[in-house]
Amino acid sequence: MAEEEEDDYMSDNFITQTESVRPGLAWGKHAKKYESEKRQKAAAAKNRLKPLKEREHEERQKGLNSALTSDNKGFAMLQKMGYKKGMGLGKQGTGRAEPVPIEVKADRGGLGREAEQKRKQQVRERLEVEAMRKRQKMMGQMKGDFRQRMRDKFDDKITGKDLYDSQKACQYLDESKGFGDPVVSWYWPPKPVEKKIKDDDEDDGGSSKDGLRTEAYESEEDEEEVEDEVDEDTFTPQEKLQQLTQYLRVTYHYCVWCGTSYEDAEDLQKNCPGSSHDDHN
């Protein structure tokens, strides 16, 4: 028996053979063919996994995006009547140039339900926008009111301090001229009023029950002080400060913000910046 000839691994026949002898590997045109088939199988498998409605939608869109040709019977009839591709319908060619779009109803809602929901959504969005604008406007007003209140509070604090300083200066200047009492009761700093408290068995102007103590005025002077306090309440601190400032400037040529008594009205007018707190800032 003749011995089988062994393969010559250095020969051309072995190098140019078309099929791979190594299992599991492909090369050359076989590799390209294998990859192409693999991609086609993957695409087909992926397409099978898509829901039926999605596949129908894709096919429908593909058909709608494709232009009509003479193979279509309706398009062929239009061409026989003189229609040319791209022109509008009608005798003058000014009509519709594109087919009427179609809208497939895929849900179970009644006719017009989607349009009604869309309208309600638009109304809801508009109301939300208006409510947001109102809230922003209200917040802006609240911020403005808060700033104004704080500004007024700061101004009232400054006014109260200036009024007290003016009252002290007025008392000093009046007493230096020999006045025992102020021209107006509130031109001088208020004195602490001591309220007299009487026992229940001395019911003079006050009444009490169950051992409670009440306030009673000892004399008519106390009542007059109360009346003066009521009169003072008719003026605001700004009005009091304005009147007292005018009194000090006219009578003593004194400015509380300068802290100086000028020689005369001309000297006051010439060297004092003004008759208000802002004029001295």
UniProtKB/TrEMBL annotation:
Which residue intervals are annotated with compositional bias (Acidic residues) in the record? 217-234
For this chain, the family text in UniProt reads: Belongs to the GPATCH11 family.
| Lineage summary | Eukaryota, Metazoa, Echinodermata, Eleutherozoa, Echinozoa
Q: Which residues form the G-patch domain?
A: 70-116
GO cellular component terms? kinetochore
Basic and acidic residues composition bias: residue spans: 51-62, 104-133, 206-216
- What is a single molecular function from GO for this protein? nucleic acid binding
Which InterPro entries does the annotation name? Answer: DUF4187 (IPR025239), G_patch_dom (IPR000467), GPATCH11 (IPR039249)
Q: Which SMART domains match?
A: DUF4187, G_patch
Matches recorded under Pfam families: DUF4187, G-patch
The protein, known as: G patch domain-containing protein 11
**Region described as Disordered: spans on this chain:** 32-71, 87-151, 193-238
Top-level division of the source organism's lineage = Eukaryota
